[in-house]
Write a structure and sequence with these properties.
OB fold (Dihydrolipoamide Acetyltransferase, E2P), 4% helix, 131 residues, 8 strands, globular, 5-stranded mixed barrel, mainly beta
């Protein structure tokens, strides 16, 4: 559900409780309301956690990399990643009609001093990994 022209990602906001979540064909996961507003957000995200499956399910190639990333408004997305990523990495999330995919963001260039960092605005509490 990405806009190809503007490269935005689409989220839903519940009309009753204001919960923000990935679009789905079901009622709000918090309150059960059926009315939701769909709105675009930038595809920029930060990786919260990453893993690599060396023996993935049948039909998937090895290694199979998954990341949990946080996009705008604190919404978290489980995405397939081509590159090996670590927590804190800047990525761009795209939906290809079947799965969400994470690719290394231009923000990596920022860390090398070659550009501007993407801004991810979160309305939820910040994520702190367990110690």
């Amino acid at each position: 559900m990405t806009g190809r022209a503007d490269r935005s990602l689409v989220l839903s906001r519940c009309g009753a409780c204001q919960l923000r979540y990935l679009p789905r064909d079901a009622p709000c996961p918090r309150c059960g309301a059926s009315r939701a507003e769909v709105y675009p957000v930038p595809p920029h995200a930060r990786v919260l956690a990453a893993t690599e499956l060396t023996v993935p399910p049948p039909g998937w190639t090895a290694p199979h990399r998954l990341v949990l990333a946080e996009v705008a408004d604190g919404v978290r997305v489980l995405a397939v990643a081509h590159d090996k990523l670590a927590a804190g990495a800047a990525v761009e999330i795209a939906f290809d009609g079947a799965v969400y995919r994470a690719t290394t963001s231009r923000a990596s260039a920022v860390e090398r001093g070659e550009g501007e960092s993407p801004k991810v605005r979160s309305t939820g509490p910040s994520f702190e990994p367990p110690r």
